[in-house]
Amino acid sequence: MTNTGTRLRPAERRRQLIAIAAALFTERGYEHVSVADIARGAGVTGPSVYRHFADKQAILAAAMAAAVDEMEAVTDAVLARPDARYADLLAGVVAMSVSDPVPIVLWRWNRRHLSAQQARAMIERSEAVLGRWVGLLAQERPALSVDDARVLAWATLAVAGSVPISRGRIGVRRYRAELEVIGARVLDAPPSAAPSLPATGAARSHHPT
Questions:
Q1: What interhelical angle do 56-79 and 102-110 show, nearest 10?
Q2: How many other CB atoms sit within 10 Å of the CB of residue 161?
Q3: How far apart are CA 203 and CA 145, in angstroms?
């Protein structure tokens, strides 16, 4: 893990601490990383970390917020174009996730370590971004109900975020292309058109004994 005891500007040091913490949380698990570990990775003292963050939980929240920051930036960039298409949003977030899956993986596995207030803030920001996705999808496909558009927006985001830390031997371009294809297929399956699931009791009655 790189670093450095080089003097950095406060904003640069903060970004460095977030990156180092995110890598450690992903590698070891939140419970097994201390503020001292993060400081050591950055080549600074523990008190230096507390100049930027109140505690380890605040560092985790900042690392997770990076995913929402990027998702907002991708959404802004795509919707600024007059010819914006929903497929462009999907492709942008897929590219983001594949290039740096750490913030999304952190959210997937460590959100239980956030305070209720921190988790609520993350969810509210995500909901605001998804609202813009729903708006574009509804504009492209006016026959969709609002509920269907919302479910499909969340489903395609789930596809884009289903990225492991390691891709194995799959190349970046192929991985991105396959996720975009899966996302497009999800969009072709509006939830209201899906067959109803059998009632629990009926499912049990047909289960072989």
A1: 130
A2: 20
A3: 29
Cα 101-104-106 angle, rounded to 5 deg: 105
DSSP per-residue string spanning 17-82: HHHHHHHHHHHH-GGG--HHHHHHHHTS-HHHHHTT-SSHHHHHHHHHHHHHHHHHHHHHHHHTST
Looking at residue 132, the DSSP 8-state letter turns out to be: H
> CA–CA separation, 87 vs 181, rounded Å?
10
Model confidence, pTM? 0.78
pLDDT in tens, 147-203: 999 999 999 989 988 887 776 678 888 989 999 999 999 998 878 777 776 766 554
| Count of CB atoms situated within 10 Å of the CB of 182 | 16
Which tokens in the block code for residue 128?
């605001």
For residue range 74-116, what is the model confidence (pLDDT) as tens digits?
Answer: 999 999 999 999 999 999 999 998 888 888 888 888 889 999 9
